[in-house]
Structure formats: structure tokens, C-alpha cells
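Section 3.1: Structural characterization of target chains.
Under the original work plan, the team committed to producing a structural model for every single-chain target entering the pipeline before any wet-lab resources were allocated. The record below documents one such target. The sequence was received from the expression subgroup and is listed exactly as submitted; it comprises 444 residues.
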Amino acid sequence: MATETATSIKKLPSLSGLHHRRNPLDENPFFHPSDGFYINPSDVILSQVAYDLSDQSQPRFAYHRAGPRQKIMYEPSAVKAAIVTCGGLCPGMNTVIRELVVGLWELYDVKEIYGIPAGYRGFYSMEAVKLNPKIVHDWHKKGGTVLATSRGGFNLNKIVDAIQLNGYNQVYIIGGDGTMRGAVEIFKEVSRRKLEVGITGIPKTVDNDVGIIDRSFGFQTAVEMAQQAISAAHVEAESAVNGIGLVKLMGRSTGHIALHATLSSRDVDCCLIPEMDFYLEGKGGLFEFLEKRLKERGHAVLVVAEGAGQDMIPRNESQKQERDESGNLVFLDVGAWFKSVLKEWWEREHPDELFTVKYIDPTYMIRAVPANATDNLYCTLLAHSAIHGVMAGYTGFVSGPINGNYAYIPLEEVAQAKNEVNTNDHKWAWVRSVTTQPDFETKF
């Protein structure tokens, strides 16, 4: 009989120079802690819920469960918290800020809460903004981030010097994978200096490309808004003779928005994502497929993620070297390129026939909207989970859902993990069955 594989629990860093004290939630008029209310140190969330029982060699991992602890490590009156938003915009950023402020204030009676303007550079170049529930009460209804954000500006020593100089002992960092890598460096430097400062990350990426957690906040709002762009493209295409509706959606390295919007809308004829190679000319190519679809239906809708086909777009030497403030290669506009090559193809093959391409790029419309109801609720749970973890003395962690349950994950793991679309799984097969698009992999 096979023996059961042991489960390994991921260790979380914690602050050692603080002392345990009673959780003020015991006295909070809005809570009535009873058996099971507080999370025990032995409560864990499994990294996977589906296993092949015939394969006992599979490693099994678990993470500490998120939530309030019976004992906390901070005296609330001594807490000075800093909140910073970094990188691009994403629906829900203001909700996370609001819920961090309200949660710290109402749950733990923390009154010293500061917003750091303009991303990481704001720590050392701008004056922090003192926050309270009255100031942030309607921020969840607004798109963007009221604190302002920016890319780049990461100067480790200046940032940690500012944290030390200003007396911040809790730092909440909201941002994407690049921001999380910066948060790891801040955590390491704070630890090296032996500062009793809790560092936690709240992953923000509209592309949903952060690994380990089920999804990033803002993603469901983005899919909902992307469907509106697809619907508009479908109307434009259907209303023209040989019309193609072309929609470019966000997704530098992953195609989750394009994939989920395609599955949700049912109006898409072909979905192209960064994880999948494709080709234009020849048997089984995109042009052959589109020509067939136009003959059958008179129109087609093409959805392409911004990172798809980047190696097919001609670049000059300057464009090959161009980087943004975060150090990423600057992508060329795959939508504009597609519109051009589609027109060239049709003029070459069907010079005397009508043809229209309507190109829609809803990127900034999607990024700038407030979070929908589902993401708003999700942002609240993320913020409160982060607060409970920091108050319990944990540091260098990210809070997020794993298999539907909230957990604390070591910050370094999240910073390194990627969440790419698996083109071999059932979901991508579902996309192909909905669109009936070619299996481009056969050529490669």
C-alpha cells in the first residue's frame, strides 16, 4: 500500500522584536469573536486541491491561512502605516487603498496612516498624505489611484532611508510583478538593517499574470469592459461588406483577458495570445481562415493580445533597444500592424472587392474604470487579509486567494511566479471550439 506524501508548509518571515498582545477585535463592537473566529497557526491552505493519488511522488505544499489572529504583535497606537501604489492603472486600486485605511482605523484603531504619492519615488521625493476614513470614503467609486502612481523611480537605499526616517513600521505596497520584485528588495534591506517594519504586497495586474494566487484584482472588471469593445467590433464588422472587427486587448506576456473575453462574448472568430505562435500566409494560416470566414458569414471578429506577434512586426535598431521606465521592451502596436497587413493582403488577393477593418483599442478605457461589484468585494478581502497578517507580526508576504481560500504567500515566491495561459489545457481547447480557429501549432 502506498504511503501518503507529507505536506510541506511554506514558512513565513515574522518580526521577532515585538511582543504579543490581545487582539483589539475582542473589544470591537462590530465583531463577536467566538470559536473558529481567529485563525490558528496550524490552519493552512493547500496549494493544490486536485491530485493524482497514484503518483505519490508529487510534492504537496500548503500556505498559512489568512485572517485575524488571537494575539497581535503591534500596539495599535504605535503603528505608523504607509500605503503606496506603483506601476500602471488597474480597476480597484482606490478600493484597496480605501479598505486598508478603513480596516486599519476601524478594526485595529490605527490612526497614523499615510499615502505615498507617485509610486516608489514618492517615498523620497514627495510629501506623504495623511489619510483617514472620511477622506477615502468614496474612493472606491473612482477609477485610477487618487494617490497617483508612476513607473520606475526605485532607489532602494533612498526608499528604506525614508521609511526609517519617517518612522513607518507597516508598509503596504500595491503593484504588479515588477513592483513585487521591488518589494522583495525593500523587505530584504529592512531585514538587513534589523528594522521592525512589516512589509506586505498586494498584487495588482490587470493582465492577471501574477502566479500562485487565483487571480489579480481588476481582472474581472477588465474582462467585462473588454466584452463591450468586442461587441462594438462585432457590430462594425457585421454592418460592413467583408468587414473585420479588430480588437487589441491588454496582455504583454499573458493572454488571460483576451481568452476570457473571447469565451464570454461568443462573437470572436479568432483569438491570438502571446503564449501561442501563429502565421499569416499559406495553408492553415490566419489569412486562409479569415477568407473562409468572410465567405461564409460576410464578417469576422479578431481579438489580439498586445504581446502577441511582437516578433513578426518589423523593428528598426532603435525600436529593438527601446525600454520603458520599468525596463520592459517597448511593444509596437500589434493592432495597427494587423490592420495594415490585413488591408495589404486583401488588396493583393481581392483588388476589386470591398473590405473594411475597424480597429478598436480600449486599453486606457479598461484600465481607468472603477472596479465592478465582484472586484470591489475582492479588494476588500485582500486589504483586510493583509492588515490581519501584518498586525500578527508577519512580514515579507502577499495575501491572496488560493483555490478560493485566502492565504499568506512568501513575497519572493509571488515575485518570481508567472501565470501564463496553458495552451494545452481544457480552457484553450474551449476557445478553439468556440472560435473554430486554426491550430497554428501544427506548422511549428
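The chain has a mean pLDDT of 93.
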